[in-house]
Amino acid sequence: MTLYFDHLVHQVESPENIKVFFNKRNVHTVNGGQHTMWGTYNTLSYFGLSYIEQIAIYDRDLFEQAAQYPYSLHYTFKRDQERQGFSRIALRTKKIEEEGQRLRELGYDVYGPDVCSRTRPDGTVVKWKLLHFGKPDLLIDFPFLIEWAEEDEERLSQLVTSGAIDTKQAITMESIQLYVKDIRRTVRLWQEVLQLPEPVQHEQFISLQLPNMRLDFYEEEVAVAMTLGHIKEGPFGVTLKDPHRTKETLVCPGAFYWINR
After folding, report:
1. Can you point out the beta strands (E) in 29-153?
2. 80 and 106 share a domain?
3. pLDDT of residue 228
4. What pTM did the predictor assign?
5. Segment 231-252 mean pLDDT
6. pLDDT over threshold 60, residue 231
7. Are both 18 and 111 inside the same structural domain?
8. Domain that holds residue 204
């Protein structure tokens, strides 16, 4: 069963401020809406169907309840002392129940799939299913899985019509960086569990290829050098490609957006 990259989660203090910051730098970002079951809300930066989600808490009680759900995004955020920055990635599937059964047979703790929703600013509701899985004491959390209620073509059309996707934007997502300990063990585990092709060794990193995104794994020591001397601020980075600008780094609390790196 094929898994596709869906989105990267960026925990922030103020999605509104991030939206202004990115739009001033020609990274098209829109209001997403509220997750009324979790007490969170977001803004979204789309690159086709792939996107980066900037998310924050608006209801502390609802969030604390959600954070008790093992291996969930909120569980990770709480465990990491609510550190701002990139925290998780989501992979898209069309067969989430079958994926859950496969992961159970591999011996993983599996939660879900659960039906979820978000209310957009215009009042419309978007729905999806989520599945979380893992084991205690993993070096880095696995992605969580998502299955959208609509087909990809329908979602793409809706996002273009609503203006969430700017068809004139030339920026694309090229790769996600993961900064890990014991790189070979982690890469092999992800390759086997996510059923990906054999990893590719590069000079500074090892990559795994999803159909629509490359995952580049670096040893943590290399990550420190990559951030130009800054203290490593989280397990992920992202590289964007823009043919209309020179090399640039957008620095947010706990997150580095590399452009044309």
Report:
1. 30-35, 40-47, 50-57, 85-92, 109-119, 125-134, 144-148
2. yes
3. 46
4. 0.93
5. 82
6. no
7. yes
8. 172-259
* Residues 142 and 37 placed together within one structural domain of the fold: yes
Whether 155 and 165 have beta carbons less than 8 Å apart is answered as: no
Task: Average the pLDDT over 59-73 and give the result.
Answer: 95
d(CA 178, CA 194): 15
Q: The CATH number of the domain where 209 resides is what?
A: 2.60.40.4320
Give the DSSP per-residue string, 160-177.
HHHTSS-TT---EEEEEE
* 41 and 109 within one domain: yes
DSSP at 142: P
Angle at CA 72, nearest 5°, toward 153 and 215? 60
Question: Total domain count for the chain?
Answer: 2
The secondary structure of residue 52, as a DSSP letter, is: E
| DSSP, res 112 | E
CA separation for the pair 5, 105 (Å, rounded): 23
Query: Order of strands across the sheet with 200-201?
Result: 200-201, 206-210, 213-219, 172-180, 236-241, 255-259, 248-252
Tell me the pLDDT band of 40, cut-offs 50, 70 and 90.
very high
Residue 78 pLDDT > 90: yes
Separation of alpha carbons 82 and 254, rounded Å:
11
The answer, yes or no, to whether residue 230 has pLDDT greater than 60, is no
Q: Are residues 197 and 136 in the same domain?
A: no
